[in-house]
Write a structure and sequence with these properties.
The protein is an alpha+beta fold and 632 residues long. The protein contains 21 helices and 22 strands.
Amino acid sequence: MKKVLSLLLAVLLAVGSLVGCSGNSNSTAYRSLYSADVSKLNYLNTTTTNDMTIPANCQECLIEYDTLGNVLPALATEWTTSEDNLTWTFTLRQDVKWVNNKGEEVGTLTAHDFVAAAEYALNVNADGAYMYEEAMVAGAAEILAGEGSFEDVGVRAVDDHTLEFTLSDPCPYFLTCLTYGCFTPMSADCMSQVDSDYANRASWDQEDWDLFSSELDAIDYTQLWYCGAYYLSEYLEGERYTMVKNELYWDKDKVYITSLENTYNREASTISGEMYLRGELESASITNTMAQSWLADPETADYVHPSRITPSYSYFFSFNFDPQFDEEYEPDNWKLAVNNENFRKSIMYGMNRLGATMISDENNAETLLQNTITPADFVASGGQDYSDFDVFTALSVNDASVTKDAYFNEELALSYRDAAIEELTAEGASFPVIILLPYNPSVSDWDSECLYVEQQLEGLLGSDYIDIVVEQGPTQDFLSTVRRGGQYALLKTNWGCDYADPLTWAAPFAEDNSYAKMDLSEDPETQAIVQEYYEMVEEANSYASADQLDERYHAFAEAEAFLIEHAMVVPFGVSGGYSASKLNPFEGQYAPYGVATLRYKGQHILEEPMNTDAFNEAYAKWQEDRAASTGN
């Protein structure tokens, strides 16, 4: 712990000197606009970023992260694990106070508040409650399946200041699950306000719990209790909400922004930029197109910089092995094509992924492009980033010193095309193979990206080989209609990580997934690949003790590389963009999972925004410090 804290102090001093170049603002109010109200204030029953912004700042977790992604104590001062790694015991900070919407003390936080939160979340199968099962908490899977009771769940208050979790199996990433809403405490006394019968919950049936959940979803900000760096002093739907510094917060000396003032405006994405330039806001929504315009103008160039790339989401192209689209797109012919490995490889090696990435962000395309599903800077082992493991570099068909794209190779793509034509012709397939490629019109640049892929791939492989049909999907319910509904042949998809382990990136390829549905393929060769992949994942997940992380990570890399090698998926990249804000992004807490990046604790308001040069300098320093901190 001393080593971590020493490194943190050194980094904060370095960042502080950098911020000093621009100076800290005398203003302690951080003003912004928003265009969509939260769906509910019940933070135990939501997972959306929009909903979690308030509890990320108004509630506290057992742990938190420093600026480099190292775990630090928060509500828990320390923790221990049993010899078999199945029991985690947390010692809670004493005298942590609950406050109301006026910042007044209303109670003292205890271990029972974590138990009450877990009891509610699991009994109603709340949004996010799946994280108890992901974290291997004993009994969680059973109760979420409707087959168990909370009495059998491994969450227990040993006493007021000792919280114990019992796991069904060792979980090497358990700590990194603890900054999700469902693991956040909520006092039973607070919940009693919404239903006077809450004290009798031991006798409730499922209908009673569901009714209570509906009532808790409607809780008002005046009824909620807060234990975080801020409390919600007002929330007026469709008008504004304000979070004010909690003077009773256990770590209040590290809360520098005293109020977060958010004003509703349905045109926020359109007008916030000009308000920000006029000094009326400390942050603004900014599109890539707007950013390019600002960067080209000397008067506004210093008001914007690239967003820090966080490996929270990974984008990849999915082939649909269970097509459910209309006959006009020839689903039976597509099944023949997609189950042919040479056909898939002709698409994978023929796609100019760097060119497609440049459609939305020409300046940062090299950085955003990824050659793996698990993004760079997610986990590392033995001083090497996961994405750089030898098993991945062996897949590259290009010279890395020439291009970041490991796979785009015209000659290779054409050879796979020729092999696919011969094999598919013998199977009775017809050409050109129709490839339905949909996009969501509400996502900026997605249409242009699809058109680029269509023209580039058809231009290389031939329109007599493939006919890519770019089709606009629905703005509403795009995921349920298109991806989950199987209304595509090829689709750019994404997945967000849940915890710090490669297992999280295997989830979209698991059985019964709603992505490529490769497990539903009826082709024997495809099924053989799928089953071998599942066996590899199972073996990787068997390395579960703390001293097996190196074996675990490399085994997961072998499984992921196996999918890519057989072109079952085409890696694409991570999201980027630009930021317009008077915050130094490297002062904030960092973790690509949970709520760390939504928190304002530890951040100052700058006199002037950070420009691109300052951002790049700070980013390079942050990467250097992070590598030193993690030993990788």
